[in-house]
Amino acid sequence: MLSGFNTNFRHRGVLFHVQTEDSGRGNPHVITHLFHGGNIMASEKRDYSDLLEQGDLEASVRKLMESQHKAMLKRLSRGEHDATIEQRLGPDVFRADVSGQTDSASTTEEERPPMPPGREAEVAAASVAATGRAPTAAPAPGSLAEPTRLEPADEPSARSRLARVFGDRVVSEKPLDEVVLDYLVENARKRKRTTK
User: Fold this and answer.
1) Is pTM, for the whole model, over 0.85?
2) What pLDDT digit, counting tens, does each position of 149-165 carry?
3) Nearest C-alpha neighbor of 68 from the set 133, 2, 112, 122
4) Is residue 39 part of a domain?
């Protein structure tokens, strides 16, 4: 049995994890899973019993694993799994994470460097293209803008609905295999302490 491949891949602003593993000679197949938050979004399983009689089985299986892993990443990047992902996580899953990124990366007027002359229209057009929203006009220097009160939204945001699919909080930013390995190591240490 060969060790597997693990790749974290951001697609349309959402982080996914692709994992490929070999099941060994006793159960000769290679399986690749596409994960989001610990849930399997897609899988691919290939039998390689026809390769068992080859001289260099390990190299052949490794090549099969690599090609299957890359194929899953390519299908994800081409959007072939988008319909399944939207069906399981909601139609606004991609919009929710993309809009969440812009909030954390926003800057205030004081933090922005001065804009070169004549580039205002170009930058405004790029902003509309990127966000789908027209930029808001800043008050004229020296004038006071009327303060506005923001009311909380009645409907939960797409990001919070997405979070509820997996629980109310993020348990770990680590890939699933690292979380499992950490758990097993900690369990082994606890057992070792109690046996002394």
Assistant:
1) no
2) 555 555 555 555 555 44
3) 2
4) yes
Domain total of the chain: 1
Domain hosting 28: range is 5-88+171-195
- Sequence-distant (6+) residues with CB within 8 A of 61 are 2, 22, 30, 48, 51
φ, ψ of residue 33 in degrees (nearest 5): -120, 145
| Residue keyed to tokens 């809009």 | 99
Return the exposure string of 80-111: e unless at least 16 CB atoms fall within 10 Å of the residue's CB, then b. ebeeebeeebeebbbebbebbeeeeeeeeeee
Assess if residue 132 is contained within a domain: no
- Sequence-distant (6+) residues with CB within 8 A of 102 are 131
Rounded-to-integer distance, Cα 141 and Cα 145, Å = 10
Assess if residue 145 is contained within a domain.
Answer: no
Q: Which amino acid would we find at residue 104?
A: S
The reply to whether 124 falls in a domain is no
Give per-residue pLDDT as tens, 91-144.
888 875 454 444 333 333 444 455 555 555 555 555 555 445 555 555 455 555
